[in-house]
Amino acid sequence: MRELIHISLFLFLVGVANAQMPFLKIHKLVEPYHQAKIELVYEDQNSALWFGTSEGLFLYDGIEFQPFLKEDTTSNHVRSIFRDNQNRLWIGYNDGTIYHLKKQKLQQWQPPGGEPLQVPVNGFAEDETGNILISTYGEGVYFFDGDSFLNFNSEDGLLSNDIYVMIISASGSIWLGTDRGISTCSFTDNKNSIKNYTTEDGLPDDIVQAILPNRDGKLWIGTYDGGVCLFDPKEKTFTYPLPDQALGVVNCLELFEGTDLWIGTLGNGVWRYSLLQGDLYPLPSLENAKVKDLHRDIEGNIWMVTNTHGICSANRQFESIPTDFDNVQSVLSDASNLLWIGTPNGLFTHHLDNKGNSSFQEHLPLLKLNTISLFEDKYNNIWIGTYGQGLFIYQPNTGTVRHLSKENGLGDGNIFSIDGINNHIWVGTLGGVTEIKYDEDILKGGELDFRIIDQKDGLGTNFIYKVFVDSQGHVWIGTDGKGISVLENGEVKNYPINFHTHSDGYIDEESRLHAVYSITEDKNGHIWLSTDKAGIFEFDGANFNHLTVKEGIRDLEITSLATDANGQIIIVHPTGLDVLTPNSKHLIYYDDEVGVQDLHPNINAVCTDHFGNVWIGGKNTIIKYTALKEDLEIHPRTLLNNVSIFLEPIDFHNNTTFSHHQNNLVFSYMGIWYTDPQTVKYRYRLSGYDLDWIGSKDRRATYSNLPSGKYTFEVTSTENDAWLDEPIVSYSFKITLPIWKQWWLIMLLLLSIAGMFLWYQKNRDKRIQLVNLLEKDKVESQLAALKAQINPHFLFNSFNTLVSVIEENPKLAVEYVENLSDFYRKIMQLRDREIISIQEEIELVKNYAYLLKKRYGNNFKMNISHNGELFYIVPFTLQILVENAVKHNIISKRKPLMVTIAMEEGKYIIVTNNVQPKLTKEKSTHFGLQSLTKRYKLLGNKKVKVEETGEEFKISIPVID
Q1: Which of 409, 349, 412 is nearest to 382 (CA)?
Q2: Region 927-934 average pLDDT
Q3: Which among 17, 135, 644, 692 has the fewest CB atoms less than 10 Å away?
Q4: Are the CB atoms for 307 and 591 separated by under 8 Å?
Q5: Cα angle at 299 between 298 and 303, to 5 degrees?
Q6: What's the CA gap between 830 and 714, in Å, rounded?
Q7: Per-residue pLDDT averaged across 546-572, rounded?
Q8: Is residue 648 helix, strand or coil?
Q9: Percent of the chain surpassing pLDDT 70
Q10: Given this model, what pLDDT does residue 656 score?
Q11: Using CA atoms, how far apart are residues 404 and 392, in angstroms rounded to an integer?
């Protein structure tokens, strides 16, 4: 059964809203520069933005403006900025001066062999051989090849000396916009070839203030009073593609290749010309503004310098259309690029007037459609899926409508999703999937063939959120609670879990897919699907790859996925919108900074138009994401902009070696991400010093007291907290060793030490030999002394003396025994010592003398003269000498023996005795005196002196300090 309704075209204007436009951000200079007039914006090879103002030069990182001002009294009014291939920054001023930026300071550049220019410097350029060209307002163009500085002006064939704009084309030609037309020049071997174009050649106006080359080598030209034209250098023809509009004075141009041309005027604001549809619209927010400059950066932002807003920017990828729709349930861009919006209260289309203002028109208002899904077939019929009202097929041009319901073939009247290919449509409902086939336009009598695919056919559940037909014709089905299914050759295959099969056949089962809300396909043919609370999944036909918070997914509750013209995956969730690069898995977050906020998105409120742009419906807004054709940067650009040693900036580009005392380094860096600069975070490390990366929000790293060695400072930045493939900037340097650590000095010291060691070893061996000899003589001396004291004669005499004393005076006998005991005890105590003090030796010899006195009575006398001097002698020296005197001389009442011990000037101790030889000499070993002489020689002191006069025997023993 079928139902065909003919309804007259019933459209009415719902309301007029503001124009479709990007979200503008204002960037203000702070005190004391807030009154400065902004003149121009320039992006260098490092993707850093520089602004020229009436008050000086400023570097902008998205958060702060860093001023660079002259240190002299000349004008700070900047007219041009340029960075050449040698990384030199050129700044041209209104007073004709030219400066370079070196070590964070401006230094004036003097033209070779000439005075500074006297007219405004309007531009710089560099040709393929590295020659620098300088355009002026008043003196034509200057050519600098590193040595010579040549001027080309109207006398050489230029149309005028007043140059407004200078560019170098892809062919290497120099194009000059003047107040009399365009001059194109080629400089070779200090010669020039000049070709001029004026209104006689087709130029709409002779005053040319903007020239902009495109990717095809053609030139967009903005004129004072003739609008914008396009010039083809190969054909040498001018064309006028823009609609007839009163733009006024065109001051600047900017181009998004294949998308649109932006036009800045002096008094009529900013206009956009669509290269896809041929429309020309103004930006209402900048109406009547004087636009000084336009610039497209590497992230896809458009920067505008105006008299009303100063510096403002917008991300060209995002535009918003304000609406009165609290709840957008579905969106569709049809073949004519008309946007359809489905809401609980009806179906609408979006329209723009010639001023760029938006309006919405309602369709089929009498049906009161609760539209939750939309689809356009090959006949340009709009398929309208509703909640509870079934399916409507609608032809807007004729107003023809056909209604399909459960009663005439659908599985259910709640239509959550529609997709198809050719004459084959699949409809996702709360009663499974309805497959519809037809042979011709069903609004012109085409017959329908229905098939219901539900749980009986293998689906895990009949509750279907999404149907999606991939590039191979496979139908993917997102279910409520049972994961994803695929329909191949009429058979259903279910994937309720995400898994990975290893090479050995082992299968990892990670988690259940549960509810699948959205499905899309990337350029590799991989299927991507979003879930209710588990992030997104990539399916390559064999395995699932799960992306969650760990991989940078910031909101796991993802409502919709779409693929843009560049193959990027657009992820829509309540927090905002993310763009995923499938191959690298890199994510870029977009939200408030581009005007994406409080979306409250629905599952079907996303679509991709025929240009590859993605439309997202939200609460009171519709977001358009434009897939730009430029190669945009997806990472923050990390710049190492300064290295200081003890806070003094250095030329780190040319200086990589520092002395050992230049070891306090500060690295200043920044991560440029103009889209959302506050999100940028950093990691850095000093290879050769740090063990791991150091995370930071600061833009400075300090290393003090670095030891000598080779180092590499590395820094990287991210805007999404996922450190995956962010580029790393590095700076390698070396801190040299101090002179006392240089290899040659170390070798010299090692050789010296080796020589000293050999000398020491040699002398040590000698000392060991001497010590051994000394020890030998010492032992022999001790043995001799001991033998002498335990001599039977000595003991016999001592005992006889003791016996006589015992009988006569027992008390004295005890004293005698005690002295005899002390004597032998001291011999035992002192025998192992090398030297002893003179006090110890005198005490010993006094004990010995006591024993001798008891034996010889008054016949033996000993006089010791010592005043308490502190010095040392060899043990038993005095005892042996006294023993020798007793041994070799007569001791009697008639011939008493007198022994004297005295000091001589603190250098010698002298032992003297009178000579009265025995008639019968005792056998002598001659060891005692000889041993003393050798020992004192080994000790390195003075020699022992022996003197005999016949009446007196005198021995001088050197003392030891």
Answers
A1: 349
A2: 72
A3: 692
A4: no
A5: 80
A6: 73
A7: 92
A8: strand
A9: 90
A10: 93
A11: 6
For residue 415 the two structure tokens come to 């239509």
Buried b (16+ CB within 10 A) or exposed e, 147-156: eebebbbeee
What long-range pairs does 469-475 form, CB within 8 A, spacing at least 24?
A: 469/419, 469/420, 469/421, 469/426, 470/521, 470/525, 470/527, 471/521, 471/525, 472/525, 473/421, 475/419, 475/426, 475/433
* The pLDDT of residue 448 is above 60: yes
Q: Which of 809-813, 864-868, 873-877 has the lowest mean pLDDT?
A: 809-813
Residues 6+ apart with CB under 8 A from 515: 465, 478, 479, 480, 481, 531, 532
| Look-up of token digits 């010899």 | 845
pLDDT at 8 (0 to 100): 44
Going by C-beta distance under 8 Å and a sequence separation of 6 or more, which residues neighbour residue 72? 108
User: Which residue in the block uniquely carries the two structure tokens 């009575």?
Assistant: 857
Show the tokens assigned to 438. 């037809």
Q: Cα–Cα distance between 414 and 406 in angstroms, integer? A: 9
The tokens for 712 are 């590499």
| CB within 8 Å of 519: residues ≥ 6 apart | 466, 468, 476, 478, 484, 527, 528, 529, 530, 561
Strand 174-178 with 181-188, pairing: antiparallel
CA 608 to CA 933: how far, in whole Å? 116
For residues 617 and 906, what is the distance between their CA atoms, to the nearest angstrom? 114
Q: Specify the higher pLDDT residue, 744 or 426.
A: 426
Give the single-character DSSP code of 132.
E
Distance CA 616, CA 603 (A): 10
Which two tokens mark 877? Answer: 């020296």
Under 8 Å between Cβ of 560 and 518: yes
CB burial class (10 A; 0-12, 13-18, 19+) of residue 691?
A: exposed
- Give yes or no for residue 39 having a pLDDT over 80: yes
pLDDT at 785 over 60: no
Q: How many CB atoms lie within 10 A of CB 769?
A: 11
Q: What is the average pLDDT value for the chain, to the nearest integer?
A: 88
Cα–Cα separations (whole angstroms), residue 317 to 521, 624, 630, 756? 21, 8, 11, 78
The one-character DSSP state at 8 is -
pTM score of the predicted model: 0.76
The sign of the CA dihedral 376, 381, 382, 386 is: negative
> Are the CB atoms for 70 and 98 separated by under 8 Å?
no
Question: In 307-367, at which residue ranges do the beta strands (DSSP E only) sit?
Answer: 310-315, 318-322, 330-333, 339-343, 346-352, 358-363
Residue 503 confidence (pLDDT): 63
Could you give the C-alpha distances from 799 to 802, 803, 854, 888, in angstroms and in order? 5, 6, 11, 21
**Bond preceding residue 32 cis, omega within 30 of 0:** yes
CA distance 395 to 334: 12
> Taking 80 as the threshold, does the pLDDT of residue 783 lie above it?
no
| Ordered DSSP codes for 22-81 | PPPEEE-PPTTSTTPPEEEEEE-TT--EEEEETTEEEEE-SS-EEEE--SSSS---EEEE
pLDDT digits (tens, 9 = 90+) for 689-713: 999 999 999 999 999 999 999 999 9
Residue 10 clears pLDDT 50, i.e. is over it: no
Place of tokens 């061996």: 765
pLDDT of residue 2: 45
CB 652 within 8 A of CB 666: no
CB neighbours of 786 closer than 8 A, spacing ≥ 6? 827, 831
The tens digit of pLDDT for each residue in 597-633 reads: 888 889 999 999 999 999 999 999 999 999 999 999 9
Question: Residue 56 forms beta bridges with which residues?
Answer: 53
CB-CB contact of 247 with 228 (8 Å): yes
pLDDT band for position 449 (50/70/90)?
A: very high
Q: Hunting for tokens 């991210």 — which residue is that?
A: 718
Tokens matching residue 739: 């002179």
